[in-house]
Description:
single chain; 2 domains; two-stranded antiparallel sheet; acid-amino acid ligase activity
Amino acid sequence: xxxxxxxxxxxxxxxxxxxxxxxxxxxxxxxxxxxxxxxxxxxxxxxxxxxxxxxxxxxxxxxxxxxxxxxxxxxxxxxxxxxxxxxxxxxxxxxxxxxxxxxxxxxxxxxxxxxxxxxxxxxxxxxxxxxxxxxxxxxxxxxxxxxxxxxxxx
Length: 154
């Protein structure tokens, strides 16, 4: 992808009693010219990398192209080549999704179990080992009520 260069000074246009005034958070508040130049260079790099219109258009075309490859594993690695690993809960009721998640990861991207098990109801436990889908229950983290399976409908 081609990177674009342009000047960014975090400029904002404000209206002052019907008159437009151009303000810049950097220019109006930072007097040290060396620091201002360094900050603007850093802001430009971030904008070019993540916010330039040319970049966004090329990135969206790349994403569409990759998403159209339906039967090709490893889309996560193709979209984010620097991604190191994927972490999610793979045991219990999530086990039915593991094969699909591994397809999205492909061979180059390892899938690890997420370090904690939680839900909207609260935190339930910590991962016993990265090599297993077993968790240690954290009994003081939430209120637990254990009901025998045959008594669930009472």
